[in-house]
Amino acid sequence: MSNKNRFELALERLKSSDWARFEQLASEFLSSEYPSLRTVANPSGDEGRDSELFSSDASPKILFQYSVSTDWETKIKKTAARINSTLPEAMMLIYVTNQQIGAKGDDIKKKVFKNNELSLDIRDKSWFLDRMDSNESRQIAAERLAEEIVDALLKDRNIIDETSQVISDTESRAAYLYLTCHLEDTVREKGLTKLSYEAIIRSVLRETNSDNRMSRDAIKDEVRKILSSHSPHIVDQNTDNALHRMTKKYIRHWKVEDEFCLTHQERVRLSEELAKHEKERNILKKSIKELLEKNIGKEVALIYTDEVDALCTQVQRIIEKYLNTRGEKFALAVTTGKLPGLAHEDLKAIIIKDFSENPLKLREIEPFDLILNTINELFSSSSTVINNYLRSIADTYTLMAFLRETPDVQSSIKKIFSHGEIWLDTSIVLPLFAEQLIENEGKRFYTNILNASRSAGIKLRVIKGIIEEVNGHMKRSLACSRVAPCSWHGDVPFLLSLYVLSGRDIRRFASWIENFKGDDRPEDDLSAYLAEFFEIETSSLEYEVDKADLVLKGAVQEIWHEAHERRKKKKTYELDEIVLYKLVRHDVENYLGVICKRRKEKASPLGYSTWWLTLDSVAHKCESFLHGRLKDDIPSSPVLSLDFLSNYLTFGPLRRLKSEREYKLPIFMDKNFADYIPPELLDVAQEVRDSVKDLPEHVIRRKVRDTLEKEKRKIGKLTEGGTALMKDKIGASLDEIPLED
After folding, report:
1. Which of 656, 691, 717 is the last residue of a domain?
2. 200 and 234 housed in the same domain
3. Using CA atoms, how far apart are residues 259 and 253, in angstroms rounded to an integer?
4. What totals of helices (H) and strands (E) does the chain contain, helices first?
5. How far apart are CA 472 and CA 466, in angstroms?
6. Do 470 and 617 lie in a common domain?
């Protein structure tokens, strides 16, 4: 039985020069359905068809056209017109193609019948895939095409060179590609060091077979080149061990010559994995282009086709650079104890640097927000394929970074905490409530990462002050939902923004909030809800803060007070001084409380088991701010980033965890996962609801969501800004207002 991924990729990779291959495939697939099929294609002309059904009166009624043309609509029109003039008695045209057409062919079917009096039946890529295993002859035909087209991927330098825009040399790119495939396919119990060496050896042996073998010394030489930063002796030892493990099952060993090659079964399996990877990479490229066109606007995108294509390549490169950078910082943190900062700041800096190194003349398109928004949308995509693909390449870049840092990845991973507790900030807790609006539980990213943390044995905590902030935010959201948008001062609060953007009726917002709390004892209700549904315990760090060094405590208080004062000035509404004081007190309690709880723990930064998880940029910079204020030893930052936690869970406990649940952790950028909306869009949402009030509720929600998305994307005439404008935007966004405000 042919593998579906291999066959699908074979169909997709057919070129115009492969027309004979495709005609043979199509004939073999059709012959079981049409035994009287006659092939008539020839170099001198076929009068508009490639095959026909036998007819006793020499006037064929059913004709077949085989085509690999991407412009299938034009091809069909020309074929139908020619049949009208050369074979006027024909009644049906069966158009057979490797392209994906589906419902897009409905319109051309109507036109062909109206203009040419021909019934049109389209057999596209899906038709082949659905029937590839329906009988033996089709299985053989599908497998033959896969062998001819896809198995050649093992030797295709273009596939390897295109697989990564970050890694420079071919052999390292090949190692990256095979490591990506191997990470998805391997068992969890296998150590990361063993897994890495086995993937690298597969990449080195990718072009081998029984007639083209490779010596042990040649294999070692290639592996040493890829892992050039490590001791040759250790690399050789790990290579020998991997070759021994892989012999018989994955590779063949000629002992006398001491030569190796991949087994046939392993070559087929690798081609299947490469086919799957290539398919997912193409889906990502297509999604990037669709998002760019959506964010620019279809009409503008049609005018600037070249710019959109260039931006598509640039977005893909920036994503890879970002994932590689975060992987390097995670590996560096594990090996040195230096924790990474917020991920979204890295992304913004990478966008600037990439445009400096690869300038594009974009005329009227201002690129920074466009690229940033496109990547944001991509990382929160509802597509399982895209999420899994991004996760897989992120994991591979991280593992490659480990391999550059240390020859023993597994030992390095064991250094980091394997239990403990994490204290949560408001910026983490509020999204848990917002995600209750998401019907697909697999897309509740914040909820899922905390569920994974609990499964890994980590306890979740929140101070009472955070409960107070959440309650305050809900009260403000309720107030906004009850007044006219024109009389509301400031942005629509986070929870209400998400509620409206989900398409729900703002008049029912108060009822939705009642799922979490009542009016009499709201903070107790919220604590109980978090404990019951998320196993988050409400506790206190005040005792620990009271024991903190007074000089350190004073410096931390100053930092947070100055931060909240700056944020207060940016607000479009008045913030009470008492509220500001409480916000400072809560941040100080979390920051200092966690530091003080660590006194009995290991001195190594990654040996600590108590952390504070927050999106607040000031929290992540607080340690560096303290160095400018204090002369004595500065305590290590207690702040954990979301993407660090995600990587830790992926490479640490979740690999060892034996659970029925498969955790697919998202790619985080440590940023609020949704935008606020301007108050005027509240009126728009209600107008849409009223205009379609007789439709089913799920249809109303969809129309509201679609309308709000269109309104948000209305950006008018885009102005050219270049890197100077982008730098200004970055500078203005580095001190963003967090959710709790």
Report:
1. 656
2. yes
3. 6
4. 33, 13
5. 10
6. yes
How many other C-beta atoms lie within 10 A of the C-beta of residue 193? 22
Identify which has the larger pLDDT, 589 or 228.
589
Indicate the pTM of the whole model: 0.76
The encoded tokens of residue 246 equal: 């892989």
Angle CA 247–250–254, to nearest 5:
45
Total of domains in the chain: 3
In a domain, 110, yes or no: yes
> Average pLDDT over the chain, rounded to whole?
82
Burial class (CB in 10 A: 0-12, 13-18, 19+), 211: exposed
For 407-422, the pLDDT digits (tens) are 787 777 776 666 789 9
Q: Of 600, 631, 656, which one is at a domain's C-terminal end?
A: 656
How far is 257 from 689, CA to CA, in rounded Å?
77
Instruction: Give yes or no: residues 447 and 470 share one domain.
Output: yes
Distance CA 392, CA 588 (A): 37
My answer on whether 23 and 52 are in the same domain is yes
Q: Does residue 638 have a pLDDT over 50?
A: yes
Q: Does a structural domain hold residue 408?
A: no
Picking from 363, 678, 732, 284, the residue whose alpha carbon sits closest to that of residue 489 is: 678
93 and 81 Cβ atoms separated by less than 8 Å: no
Q: List pLDDT tens digits, range 117-162.
A: 889 999 999 999 999 998 999 999 998 898 888 777 666 666 777 7
Residue 46 and residue 182: Cα distance in Å, rounded? 48
Task: Give the angle subtended at the CA of 446 by the CAs of 444 and 451, to the nearest 5°.
Answer: 90
150-188 as b/e: b if 16+ CB within 10 A? bbebbebeebbeebbbbbeeebbbbbbbbbbbbbbeeee
Helix (H) or strand (E) holding 39: strand 37-39
Reported residue count of the chain is 741
Alpha helices in 461-521 (DSSP H): 464-481, 494-501, 509-513
- Phi then psi dihedrals of residue 613, to 5 deg: -100, 120
CB atoms within 10 A of CB 191: 14
- The whole domain housing 80 covers 4-149
d(CA 400, CA 397): 5
Q: What is the pLDDT of residues 73-129, one digit of tens each?
A: 998 998 888 888 888 888 888 999 999 999 899 999 999 899 888 899 999 999 999
Q: How far apart are CA 729 and CA 81, in angstroms?
A: 56
Q: Which residues make Cβ contacts (< 8 Å) with residue 95, sequence separation at least 6?
A: 65, 67, 72, 75, 76, 79, 120, 121, 122, 123
C-alpha dist (Å) from residue 501 to 477, 486, 714 = 14, 19, 16
> Is the separation of the CB atoms in 448 and 649 below 8 Å?
no
Does 600 map to a domain?
yes
Give the whole-angstrom CA distance, residue 557 versus residue 507.
41
Contact criterion met (CB below 8 Å) for 173 and 187: no
Residue 662 within a domain: no
Measure CA 642 to chain center.
15
Place of tokens 């709790």: 740
For residues 511 and 513, what is the distance between their CA atoms, to the nearest angstrom?
5
The angle formed by the CA atoms of residues 546, 552 and 555, to the nearest 5 degrees, is: 115
Which sign, positive or negative, has the C-alpha torsion 103, 109, 110, 111? positive
Rounded to the nearest 10 degrees, the angle between the axes of helix 170-185 and helix 264-296 is 100
Q: Which two tokens stand for residue 520?
A: 């009499």
Report the C-alpha gap between 587 and 564 in whole angstroms.
10
- Eight-class DSSP state of 61: S
